[in-house]
TrEMBL record:
InterPro entries: Ferrochelatase (IPR001015), Ferrochelatase_AS (IPR019772), Ferrochelatase_C (IPR033644), Ferrochelatase_N (IPR033659). It comes from the Bacteria. Its EC number is 4.98.1.1. Belongs to the ferrochelatase family. Pathway: Porphyrin-containing compound metabolism; protoheme biosynthesis; protoheme from protoporphyrin-IX: step 1/1. Keywords: Cytoplasm, Heme biosynthesis, Iron, Lyase, Metal-binding, Porphyrin biosynthesis. It comes from Agrilutibacter niabensis. This is Ferrochelatase. One of its GO terms (molecular function) is ferrochelatase activity. Its main location: cytoplasm.
Length: 359
C-alpha cells in the first residue's frame, strides 16, 4: 500500500516542525458578567506596566473602589457586543491565528492572551512539549507601547524562565534524554511593532478605500487610537509618534488632503491627563464646524473589540448623531485574508533577518 501523497501544506509543515508563531493579544473576559469582568480587570489593572502607581495606593483603590464600581457597568458594555462564540476580541484573534496558519502551513501558528486565557505560559509549554524549539512572538499591537508590547515581552521572558526552572520532563523519556531536555525553553524572537510596515499600510489603506467605495466618502476621516497617560509619552514611550507616523502614511496612501483627516485618542481611563486630542471632543468640534459625516478607523487595534465596537461604533456614533452628523465605523482588519498575508510576511521577514545574523 502506498502512503497518500502529502498536500503542499503537509510537505511544508514537515519542513519546519521546530518553529512556531504565537500571535499575542491583550485578553478579554470569559463572559459578559460582572464576575468575569472583575477577574479580567483585576489581572489587567494589576500589571505595573499598565498602572505604575505605588502598590500601597493602587491596591485599595483598585479592589475597594474601581472593581466594585466598574465591573457591572463594563459587563453591560461587553454584553452589548458579545458574539455567539464569545468576546469579539477572543473570536477575531482566534480566527486571525487560523487565517495566518493557512498562510504559513510550514509552522504551527497559535494565539495567546496577555491577560486571561489562553495564557502565553500555557501555549509555550504546549509548544515545547510538541518539540518546538523556536517561537516567533508577534504582539497584535501595530504600535509599540510600554503598557502593551513591553508587557507581552515580560510574560514571554517569565514563561521561558518558568519552563527552565520547572525542569520540565516529558513522560516516557529515558533519564539521560530527559536530563538533556529538561529546562530547554524554546528560543523566542519578538516583533516589537509594525506601524510603518508597507504591507500593513497598504492593507489598511485598501480596507478604508474599499469601505468608502461601498458606503460613500464621508467628509472627514478620523484615525482613532487607544490613548495613554501623557506622562508616559513625556517619559519616552514611542506610541504617539508611531500612531502619528502610521496615520500620516495611510492618509498619504489614500491621497487625502491635510484638512480632511484627523488623529485622535479614545478610551481614556482614570483622572490623569491622557494623550490629546480626545476622539469624543474632536467629533464634537467637527460637528460644530459643520462637518456632517465622518468615517472612523481604529488602526491601533488589530481586531475589533469592546473599545471599537461599543465605544466608537455605538456610543460615539450616537453622540455624533445627536449633533446632527453621521459616523461610519470602518472595521479593523480582523481575520481578513489581507491581514493574515501581512502578518505572515512580517513573520517571514523577521525570521529571515534572524537567520541572516551571524551566530
Ligand atoms: C491605565 C489604563 C490603561 C492603559 C494605559 C491602556 C492602554 C492600552 N490599551 C490598549 C488596548 C485595549 N484596551 C482595552 C480595554 C481596556 N483598556 C483599559 C485601560 C488601559 N488601557 C481598560 C480598563 C479596558 C477594559 C475596558 C474598560 O474597563 O473600560 C481593549 C479591549 C479589551 C476587550 O476585551 O475587548 C484593548 C484592545 C492599547 C493598545 C493600549 C496602549 C497603547
Ligand atoms: Fe486599554
Ligand atoms: Fe472604553
Amino acid at each position: 500500500m502506498t502512503a497518500p501523497t502529502p498536500t503542499a501544506g503537509e510537505t511544508a509543515a514537515a519542513i519546519d516542525r521546530a518553529t512556531a508563531m504565537v500571535l499575542v493579544n491583550l485578553g478579554t473576559p470569559d463572559a459578559p458578567t460582572p464576575g468575569a469582568v472583575r477577574r479580567y480587570l483585576r489581572e489587567f489593572l494589576s500589571d505595573r506596566r499598565v498602572v505604575d502607581l505605588p502598590r500601597w495606593l493602587w491596591w485599595p483603590l483598585l479592589n475597594l473602589v474601581i472593581l466594585p464600581l466598574r465591573a457591572t457597568r463594563v459587563a453591560h458594555k461587553y454584553a452589548s457586543v458579545w458574539l455567539r462564540d464569545g468576546s469579539p476580541l477572543a473570536v477575531y484573534t482566534r480566527q486571525l491565528a487560523q487565517a495566518v496558519q493557512r498562510e504559513c502551513p510550514q509552522w504551527r501558528v497559535l494565539h495567546a492572551m496577555r491577560y486571561g486565557t489562553p495564557s502565553f505560559t500555557h501555549v509555550l509549554e504546549q509548544l515545547r512539549a510538541d518539540g518546538v524549539r523556536r517561537v516567533l512572538v508577534l504582539p497584535l499591537y501595530p504600535q509599540y507601547s510600554t503598557t502593551t508590547t513591553a508587557s507581552v515581552r515580560d510574560v514571554v521572558e517569565t514563561a521561558r524562565f518558568a519552563i527552565r526552572d520547572s525542569g520540565f520532563v516529558e513522560a516516557g523519556k529515558e533519564a539521560a534524554d530527559a536530563d538533556a531536555d529538561a529546562g530547554v525553553a524554546p528560543m523566542a524572537h519578538f516583533i516589537g511593532d509594525y506601524h510603518l510596515d508597507p504591507g500593513w499600510i497598504a492593507a489598511l489603506s485598501e480596507s478604508i478605500r474599499d469601505h468608502r467605495a461601498r458606503h460613500g466618502n464621508a467628509a472627514h476621516l478620523m484615525f482613532s487610537f487607544h490613548g495613554l497617560p501623557q506622562r508616559l509619552a513625556d517619559n519616552g514611550d514611542p506610541y504617539p509618534r508611531q500612531c502619528e507616523a502610521g496615520a500620516r502614511a495611510i492618509a498619504a496612501a489614500l491621497g487625502l488632503r491635510e484638512e480632511s483627516w484627523t488623529l485622535s485618542y479614545q478610551s481614556r481611563f482614570g483622572r490623569e491627563k491622557w494623550l490629546e486630542p480626545a476622539t469624543a471632543a474632536t467629533l464634537k468640534a467637527l460637528a460644530e464646524r459643520g462637518i456632517r459625516s465622518v468615517d472612523v478607523v481604529a488602526p491601533g487595534f488589530a481586531v475589533d473589540c469592546l473599545e471599537t465596537l461599543e465605544e466608537v461604533a455605538q456610543m460615539l456614533k450616537q453622540d455624533f448623531q445627536a449633533c446632527g452628523g453621521e459616523l461610519r465605523y470602518i472595521p479593523c482588519l480582523n481575520d481578513s485574508d489581507a491581514h493574515a498575508r501581512v502578518l505572515a510576511a512580517i513573520a517571514r521577514d523577521a525570521l529571515a533577518a534572524t537567520a541572516a545574523q551571524p551566530a
